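Lecture notes, unit on protein representations.

Consider one protein chain, 220 amino acids long.
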Amino acid sequence: MRILVVEDEKKIASSIGRALKDSGYLPDLVHDGEEAWFRAGTEDYDAIVLDLGLPKLDGLTVLKRLREAGTQVPVLILSARSAWRERVAGIDAGADDYLAKPFYVEELVARLSAILRRGSGAATPVLSARDLKIDTRRMLVTRAEKPITLTSLEYRMMRYLVTNKGRIVPQTELQDHVYASEAVPDSNALEVLMNRLRKKVGSDMVVTRRGLGYIVEDVA
C-alpha cells in the first residue's frame, strides 16, 4: 500500500520511511508542501502522513486543498504544535488522526494501520478472504491455517488485493501499489509476480478478469 510521507525534517522522514517499509508499506517521501500538494493530486495513495510545519505551503493548507478538491485519502497529521487548538484545526480541516512530536515510529505505524483498517471496514489487524488471512501487524499470511512465506513484493500484492476484495483492481493500479514510484519494472513483471503468488496461495485465490484486472472474491 502506498503512503505519502510529507515531512521537512529529513531524518524524521527517513525514520518514518524505514518503519513503514519494515511493516510492508511503500512510502514516498517529500519535504515541502508544494510537492506534497502536487504528488497527492496526481498519484494514487492509500494514506498520507502530513507534517503541519512545512516550507513553501503549510500542512494545514495542503489538507484543506485536498478536501476541497474532494480527495478522501486518509490523513495522519504530525506536528510539534501540541496545543489542543492545533489538533482541533487539523481534525476540522479533514484529518483522520493526529500525532504530536516527538513520537515513537511504532505508534505512528499502529495509528496509520488503524486508519487504513477503518477505511476498508476491518475491525482488527487481520485481513481475510475466504480461508486466507493476513496478520498485517506481524506480516504473516496463512491459508487454511497453514503459513505461507511471501517475498515483500508478493506480500504487498496479496495485501492490496485482499484489502480491496470484491473489487476488480486494474493492472496499472496494482502495479502502482506494489512497486516503488521510481521503479520501472519490465512490461510482464506484474504477470510474473502474480504467477509466483498464485503458486503459493493457490491459483483459485486471485481471479483474472481479462482486459479489466484482478479480483479476490470472499466466496468460493
